[in-house]
Amino acid sequence: MTTADIALVAALRDDIDRLLAAEPEVRSDASDSVHQMRVATRRLRSVLRSYRRLFVKEPVAVMVTELKWLAGLLGEARDAEVRADRFATLLADHAGQTPPAELGPVTARLVIAERDRYRRAHDEVLTALDSERYRTLRDQLSAWRTAPPLRHSRVTAEAADVFGAVLRSDLARVESLVRAEPTVAATERIELLHDIRKSAKRLRYSCEAAAQEAGDAADLGSRAKKLQTVLGDHRDAVESHRTILDRAAEAAAAGEPADLYEILADAEDAAAGRELSRYPATAAALFG
Questions:
Q1: Burial (Cβ within 10 Å: 0-12, 13-18, ≥19) of residue 202
Q2: Which residue among 51, 178, 193, 216 is least enclosed by CB atoms within 10 Å?
Q3: Cα separation values, 101 from 6, 87, 93, 205, 262, Å
Q4: CB 103: neighbour CB atoms within 10 A?
Q5: Which is one Pfam family of this protein (predicted)?
Q6: Radius of gyration of the chain (CA)
Q7: Is the pTM of this model over 0.85?
Q8: C-alpha dist (Å) from residue 218 to 196, 206, 222
Q9: CA torsion, points 184, 187, 190, 193, in degrees to nearest 10?
Q10: SS3 state at 150
């Protein structure tokens, strides 16, 4: 029998190693490095929250706060990176239909501006990585690789039982949000779908932490990932649509043509609709 403490330390160590391994890549601005460190940070924070009853409360609360701080900084850079790539792809798809004189200003407002935002945000990340606050976080995580602050009265039970209870709780959280979704006003739906996505992601990470101990964790985690992906793609399209409209307003105020912005906005609106059409079946599949 594997006890919960042994399994949880192993899962936590893997997540910590992912985060620490990403740091030098971020420092050198390697391709996809910000994304990988952000995922590792969010993953670790999610696991600490899902399995919080197995940890001493205060140090884990502090750690979750610090991981949220780091994820926020990485998120600013990653979001700009995603927008720049998405806008570049959109513009490439429509470049043949657009006069070069109009394409240049649109590219500047969408792609170049987002790449500039990425560089500024990446500089902020580097400043944070050199700070005493991050060094303290990194040192604490290194210590937790082998000795996290566990509540030993709760981690001596069989891992399969403890992890299974956490998965059921995380699944119930997603289900409650999915059931609420048809009842909310249209103005609230976008944010509720975002909350469903975050809950599905948390369930996915819980499943991955439990993969060696709970027999159905891998399958459940795979289904949660599909729901997370569909709603993540929907969210990206919605955010892109909003940003394009904002840049269109700025362009119009500057006396620049806005026709291309309208075309791009319509394309993103259609993309959001396609992803949303996949949501009901993907959500239903999660609950078997």
A1: buried
A2: 216
A3: 63, 18, 17, 47, 17
A4: 15
A5: CHAD
A6: 21
A7: yes
A8: 20, 10, 6
A9: -10
A10: strand
